[in-house]
Amino acid sequence: MMDNSYVSLISTNPQDVKVSSTLEKSTGKKHLTDNNPETCWTSRQGPGQYIHLTFERPAIPKRITIIFQGGFVGTKCKVEVSESSDRPEWQTWTYVHPEDANRRQTFDLITHRDGLPREGIQSMKLVFEESSDFYGRITIYELKVEGLLL
After folding, report:
1. pLDDT tens for residues 30-41?
2. Backbone angle region of 71, left / alpha / beta, with phi > 0 → left and psi within -120 to 50 → alpha
3. Whole-number pLDDT of residue 87
4. Dist CA 110 CA 40 (whole Å)
5. Is 113 exposed, middle or buried (0-12, 13-18, 19+ CB in 10 A)?
6. 3-class DSSP state for residue 117?
7. Fewer CB within 10 Å of terminal CB in the chain, N or C?
8. pTM score of the predicted model
9. 129: which residues sit within 8 A by CB, 6+ positions away?
10. DSSP code of residue 6
11. In angstroms, rounded to a whole number, what is the distance separating the alpha carbons of residues 3 and 70?
């Protein structure tokens, strides 16, 4: 059952979305959140590629939705959180394990309420510790983080 009380937590301000690297200008970070299925973000090669999100207000993330390109999937993704956005002190919250596939994949975070500050978090980082690409590249067509704004 989908809970429609969740809102998008990803800020519309481009400064609030940071990435570890970008392969080329045509695959920049703005394509993560432009709702265009034709565009994507692609990282450079190397392990530990990440996406760092800053929320406009403290939030409780409940769901992550990602569409990867098969062959360039972050198959082991560490979800880190921080109460602060200015100088984040990252804590590992949970792991998600996307399949090497082109389809939309949704990960419910509801069960991971433990380890999250009650006041919510201001920053979230998705760290792709493993990739289905030999060189560690990640390609994402869509990224959504939904939950509650406090």
Report:
1. 999 999 999 999
2. left
3. 87
4. 27
5. exposed
6. coil
7. N
8. 0.93
9. 47, 48, 74, 76, 77, 78
10. -
11. 28
